Amino acid sequence: MAGSARRRDGHIAQERMLEEAMAAIAENGLAALTMSALAERLGTSGGHILYYFGSKDLLLLAALRWSEAALTEERRALLGRRLTAERKLDLFLRLYLPQGPRDPRWMLWIELWARTQGNDTLREAQQELDRGWQEDLEALLTKGVTQSRFAPMDAPEVTERASELLALLDGLSTRVVLGQEYGPDPRPAFDAARAAAARLIPRGPRG
């Protein structure tokens, strides 16, 4: 990866900046990520980073978008796989949940939530990213209902159950990232999420 740190014109690629930002968050926490600290990791200047992102808020947003883009590809691939709806839901939960207390993507999410008040750019970005998860979960549930893997639900019920489940996952994930529950092992958090999903989305006759 180090060989791709700079383009031929000598400028550090934006993707490399985002990779290093995520790595720095995972290693030292979000509070330690400053423009100067990131510039030192990259061997460049804080001004160079600001040239591309404009502010720390926009850098954090770009890092989150970059991380979420990879997960969007995984979600879409998951929806197309030849698996039962129950298995797809399990894998969806694993994609959504943090990997542990220092999960950098979830640290960015929590920071974004805290900064959206009065910031239209961040709030709209949050809504856009949330909408992707919501729509894909609704598609998964709808297909599961059609295949009788989940209990019958009409479209408004699917939307409501998906929203409720995502809200529960947000709360659970926040507690994991803040180190309030479950410790470093991600399995107990997954088991709790799976139990919540089972209560909200009952199995159908083929489930």
Task: Give the gist of this structure.
With about 210 residues, the chain is mainly α. About 70% of the residues lie in helices and about 0% in strands.
Would you mind describing this structure in some detail?
The chain has 207 residues and is an all-alpha fold. The protein contains 9 helices and no strands. α2 crosses α3, α4 (56-79) crosses α6 (104-115) and α5 (85-96) packs across α9 (187-200).
Annotation keywords:
207 residues, 9 helices, elongated, disordered N terminus
Largest sheet: none
The amount of helix comes to 55-70%
Shape: elongated
Average per-residue pLDDT, rounded, comes to 87
Structural class label: mainly alpha
Strand content: under 5%
Unreliably modeled segments: 1-10
Radius of gyration from CA coordinates: 19 Å
Beta-strand segment tally: 0
**SSE order:** HHHHHHHHH
Q: In angstroms, what separates the terminal alpha carbons? A: 44 Å
What is the number of helical segments per DSSP (H or I, 4+ residues)?
A: 9
Write the layout of secondary structure elements.
Elements: H1 14-28, H2 35-42, H3 46-53, H4 56-79, H5 85-96, H6 104-115, H7 120-146, H8 155-177, H9 187-200
